[in-house]
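JOB MANIFEST
job_type = single_chain_structure
chain_count = 1
residues = 222
[input]
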Amino acid sequence: MQTREPVFGPGIGESQRKLLGLIKRSGECTIAWLEAGFDLNRETLRTHLKALVAMGLVERSGVHRKGPGRPHVLYRLTPAGEALFPRREGMLLGELAGFLNERGHRDLLEEFFERRLARRRKELAPRVAGLRGRERLEATAGILSEEGFVAEVVDGEGGARLRLCHCPLQELVALSDLPCRFEKRLIEGLLGARSRRETFIPEGEHACTYAVGPLAQLRGRP
């Protein structure tokens, strides 16, 4: 049976997509194992593998020893590499939220997000503690990128802005405004300051943009 490889997006060539697919199927593998499933010579294969390592998609996971001679390096996907393959958690979460709403249990969703917000604030507090101004804003953007928001800091009239270029919970947002409300509260907790949302992905914009005002005010505690 022929299988189709996922489409990973720009910056990853056809051979690299195939290579990622082979590593995904094997879990861990050596260059020799990959070579057996490829129509490329070993040096070209090494070049592609090094590129994927540099992109943070593949990593060395140990060595494989079999008989005499040098051990063979094992490779596996990193969490970033795993994330390139299709996932359905968001769709399932959206269906669950829809079910709870239909059954009149929106209060359970509210309680879930309240508890999650409290937990995330406690977990993330040490990462912004003591940071001020631009440094705190950049740290917040980094945390949000780890959460899947593809965040960046941009400068504009009236001060710096936090721009979230991706919504990792689009299926849920389509059913409820709760994720967006708690997202804003998490951002303000991390910054230690109020923010104003200027653009909004659910309204057709390419990003959710938050104006944070003068950087000097970013000195609170989450």
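[summary]
The CA atoms of residues 99 and 105 lie 9 Å apart.
Residues 1-7 have pLDDT under 50 and may be disordered.
exit_status = 0
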